[in-house]
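hiii so my PI (J.) wants the whole complex modelled not just the main chain, which honestly fair. so below is everything: two entries, each one labled with what it is. i double checked the lines twice but i was tired so who knows lol
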Amino acid sequence: MTARTFDRLLPSILGLGTLVVLVLLVELLIRVNLVNRFIVPMPSQIAGAFERVIVEEDIPHRFLVTMREALWATALLAVFGIGIGVLLYRVQLLRDATETWVAAMASAPTVLMYPLFLVIFGRSEKTIIMMGFVAGLPAVILKTIEGLAGTRRVLINVGRSLKLTEMQLFGKILFPAALPTIFVCLSLGMIFALIVIVGVEFLINVGGLGQLINDLAERYDLPGTYAAICFVILVSVVFFFLTDRVEKWLRPAA
Amino acid sequence: MAETGRLIAPATQPLVRPVTLVRVAIVVGILATWEAVAASGLLFRDVVPSLAVIGRAIVELLADPATYFNLGVTAGEIGLAMLIGGLAGLGVGILLGGNRLLSRAFESYLYYLGPTPKIIFFPIMIMWFGVGPGSKIAMGVLSCFFPVALSAAAGMRTIDNVLIRVGRSFRAGTWQMITKIYLPAMRLPVINGVRLGLGVAIIGTLLAETKLSNKGIGFLIINAYSTFNMPRMYALLILLFVLSIGVNALVGRLGGAGTIKR
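here's the output for the full assembly
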């Protein structure tokens, strides 16, 4: 291994190595009874519980349920979030009047409205999907406006010089130019939705992966609970990694 | 030469700005629609109570001393969570932002772990810290740690090298470098991180309270749901939203986030 390759790999080795050392340390502390094994299960037990949780708790099905909810929420975000964003971009007065409200809504803890949604939609997937939708809505609206407003002036001028109507200008220039940003904002909305969806599944004990964690915790299946949490973390990390890659791929075109 | 008078009429400002008019129209429209739905009986009775009933519930809520006790419990939990999580995040952020190797080794873990739904850790927090305020504080700590750490790390990397060299040339110690150079220079990203952290700490703590608690605003909300006291739930949500947005804006203003010139 050359010195340059070592330098390149050193951060990854350090990061992964630290993780492995920490896991081994926890295993050791539990084995010598310095950490209570009825509070923290041994990492080897958690690793052993993975197969059981995947097979017995039907993780693939639960994963698909969570993804289905996330996709429904994203579809709603695409229709309403982008729609409202386009409306606010095109009607300047409406935008001036409401943009700060949308921004304020983005910082409001909307997820805490879940008991209200439970009353309106019942203890079902509808509540989870609507919560995901509400959580992602402000971000998608704001990013859609940002994407449309960021269209290069020269493109708009070219459209005007070709005497395009307002609708043609929007359909042929503004919307295609904003598409990369809009896609990025949709993936951002999906991330917001997914976070809230798993959280609400856990809180109301309905749905896919979130419900699984709640189920296992209520059964006091500690290795299973930790394994399920690790699985959700893994899914989240892979999901964010992929959306991050797509964003980086699209950004230069934006 | 005789002076000629100007014939330009003075610009008149409209009495009410069009933006204000639109805002008032939207608010009035929403309130009127709400009242119409409440009166129509289209939804179950009490799911959409009339505005007068919600207004009365707000007044009752504000007049009830128990509200302030529960608000104090939640505020205490969030405050402690911000203190612990914020300081830990700041320390880790400064460490990662100031060291390229550590940043490349560990920052991606923070980056990808940051957006995971933190509430799923609540069963673990209950095991570790019990069913009392400890587990709620831990949820708040876990929630706010990541945005503060990532913002502080990003802020460290934006500090002008000249400032760091000036500090070193004065032989400043580590603590002096942190308090005199790093923190003032990265105030803006840190304030932004604290604002983000505060938002998610509020959510983390309150969600934990709605799941398992016998005091706090989250408990009051889930209690109103359990007893189907919808006007009280609306009143609590309105109070919570006003407080959250207000505190968030206040943190930004205290930090002077909007006034810093770079």
